[in-house]
Automatic annotation (TrEMBL):
Protein name (Swiss-Prot/TrEMBL): Acyl-coenzyme A thioesterase THEM4
Gene transcribed to yield this protein: them4
Parts forming coiled coils: none
Entry annotated with the keyword Ribonucleoprotein: no
Membrane topology: Peripheral membrane protein
Organism: Dicentrarchus labrax (European seabass)
Subcellular location per the Swiss-Prot or TrEMBL entry: Cell projection, Ruffle membrane; Cytoplasm; Mitochondrion inner membrane; Mitochondrion intermembrane space
Amino acid sequence: MARSLGRIFNGLQRLGSVSPIQTQLRYPSTSVYQPVRRRSVLQAVPSFLSPKPRDFSLPNPSWGSELMQLYERYNSQCEVETEEGEKQEGPWKRVPSYNRALKYAPCGVYLSKIIQSKARLFTRNINDPGAAFEYVLFINREEQKCVGIFQAGHLLEGPPGHVHGGAIATMIDTVTGTHASFLSGPVVTANLNINYRRPIPLGSTVLIESSLDKKEGRKLFFSCKVTSTDGSKVHTETTVLFVSISASHLLLGG
Ligand SMILES: CCCCCCCC/C=C\CCCCCCCC(=O)SCCNC(=O)CCNC(=O)[C@H](O)C(C)(C)COP(=O)(O)OP(=O)(O)OC[C@H]1O[C@@H](n2cnc3c(N)ncnc32)[C@H](O)[C@@H]1OP(=O)(O)O
């Protein structure tokens, strides 16, 4: 069963012909979710089987002014105007975000109904806006950087009034993991090493910046910093190692 699912998944990935992250990044970054590639792959599928998934990385009423300001700052650099007044892709891309990782893959919506259909992405499984992880990620291909803007909700408490260290680690893993997937396709975290420097108050917004240090074969080494939004306070400093895997590594249990 697992083997045949692996074959289906690999086949579907070949059908899509681009990696999951590359697929999503083809969508016009300043617009709401527009599944250009997915539509062409799935045209023949009845529409009742393809509900439009919610993109959690778009603003909602729980977003505070800091999250909104930073979102707008990066989003305004996703599409720029040439001197002739034409619009073209800018240096940054907003990364859409759904409540199942499989929805990123070509035909993923259908696979996600077959494989562990109740599974939900850890950071996107609370429906109450603002209660837990509110965040948006942007990627800059040229500078090989990824930033996350993260507003921590009241359900993420660790030390009284402050964010749980595991929730911070989750967000660091999410930003660097998305960055690594974008650069290299499917990966898993092999090592995550965090120095917690200052606690993060619940309800506040922080900036998470990931950069690729080096790539050696299947291994990708990243540094990641969590700071206040103006960069004046460092909350954590992290190094992360990701290892590239084939899709069957996950489907067949490693
Ligand atoms: C189909 C998927 C599509 C995905 C699309 C996603 C889109 C984005 C979606 C949503 C965004 C959310 C993003 C969230 C991201 C979250 C990521 C996680 O949390 S992952 C869960 C936690 N991690 C694990 O469960 C790993 C468990 N470990 C393993 O599976 C294996 O140990 C693995 C793959 C890491 C290595 O196993 P081997 O057998 O394949 O390879 P070997 O030879 O052991 O290692 C390869 C190289 O790496 C080094 N290495 C391995 N582990 C190391 C370690 N812990 N420290 C240092 N080096 C290590 C080794 O020394 C070796 O190096 P030398 O090639 O010899 O130079």
